[in-house]
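Hey team,

Filing this mostly as a record. A colleague (T.K.) asked me to run one chain through the structure pipeline before their review meeting, and I want the input and output archived in the tracker in case anyone asks later how it was produced. No errors, nothing strange. Just documentation.

Input sequence:
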Amino acid sequence: MQDSGIQVLFQGNNFLRTLQGLGVTIGISILSVIISLILGTLFGIIMTSRSKAVRFLSRAYLEFIRVMPQLVLLFLVYFGLARNFDINISGELSAIIVFSLWGTAEMGDLVRGAITSLPKHQFESGQALGLSQRQLYLYIIIPQVLRRLLPQAINLITRMIKTTSLIVLIGVIEVVKVGQQIIDSNRLSIPSAAFWIYGCILLLYFAVCFPISKLSSYLETIWKE
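Output structure:
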């Protein structure tokens, strides 16, 4: 009698390996998100500069990152830098660099949109009170921007987590790669293993992303009150 595909998950240490792969995915995602939130906020403020040159350069960076597929950027950083500049860079670091560049650009545009949507009198009132530019943004602008920014930022975070599945193509042993290894090792004995393994991976991604989405709804409710 042929083994059921779901049994593959619990043979040996397969499920533990899958969770370890998920840990790699989460680790890369967390670092990329933190870097993107910090640099993206600064980049968004820079994008509102009165200097035409600064706005042009920031817009050029945004459009380049937005148009370029993340997979191409991963290959460019991981394979291109290694071969052309003799730089030894790991797949994990390549992923963090690429997702941080992407997240910074997208987050910056969200911050720019949130800042420019604020009424002008918010800026004028702060300046009238004698606040410095730093104090103006720290105490008046950024707290208001956070409320407008939250839903889009949460959406970006979940997109970044899901897009980390691309790093399997540069050899990073994350959750999808582990799943492929388990499937390949059981391809002949248990042909239906792929359905159960990828189904498990789907549920793991859902388990990570769903609470983040619910947190967004919860925070919006609190702020409205």
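Quick notes for T.K.: DSSP finds eight helices and no strands in the chain. Residues 14-47 form the longest helix (34 residues).
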